[in-house]
Amino acid sequence: MRHALLAFLLLIALGYSALAQSPILPDPKLTPGDTFPVSREDVCVPGYSKTVRDVPIALKREVLRRYGVPLADRRNYEIDHLIPLSLGGSNSIRNLWPQSRRTQPWNAGKKDFLEDRLHKLVCSGRVDFAEAQKAIASNWIEAYRKYIGSDGGTQKERGRAAGPSPAQQAQSSLVWVNTRSRAYWKPGSSLYGKTKKGQYMTEEEAKAKGFHPAHGTGN
Amino acid sequence: MGLNRKLSSILHGRQIAQCEAAPDQLSLAFRDGSRLVVRLAAAAPPLPATGAIQKVLETGSRFVLVLESGPQVEIALADPGSSVSLRDRHGKVEYLG
User: Whole-prediction pTM value?
Assistant: First the structure.
């Protein structure tokens, strides 16, 4: 019993350690940033980002591999465009990196907010297009401090960057059950919450009702 | 090789009007005035001067244009994810990838 408790505590400690070591800034050798041959006028057309192809799953996995992130940890990371699509960033692997969703205070939510703000500043002519690209590629945290401030932005943004709400946290502990195939999916998997027929429930409840993990793992 | 759904749905049926190949870039002009530019890792093989696009296949750096008449042309992308651009006759971006 005592050994089991020690092992459990060790696992928790390792988990926190992994989060603490999450890459905060992209490796400039792996991810220097890359752009499409587009202008400010191009990116300021509504719907511009939808013209860009989605990042293939194989490429996302290669990004994780290059950064040494185990596939099992992928839900803690967002494959982020260092120079965002909205500022002309490309889908080249030189513009992609695994950004932590969970580290505080700097995380994917914070950078998303910066990206939105910079896009508005560029399209309103208050910030030069190339300057915005360079700033976010060089050091997005410094860019955040420069264009938004170190106070954490608006209340709405603070909410986004602070991590999941209690309701979201509650949902993240649930699995998504496909009531037609009787398979269930864990948070972070591609079909989580997306099948036509399904519902959320705890994993224990799903097992008790005879559902099985998709692909044997639910991932 | 995987189907590039987004680009295939845009290019399907477009008639090639002109093809210009340089060692590092391929440029296809279509009859509707749009233009596809592809940055290359290696010189492109000869392309048919006419014909319509049926679909586009893409995996990694391999990029294949399949024509409705049957032939297909495989080219090597200079930088996957950052080598293909398509603009309409007015210069508006239709596709980037």
Answer: 0.72
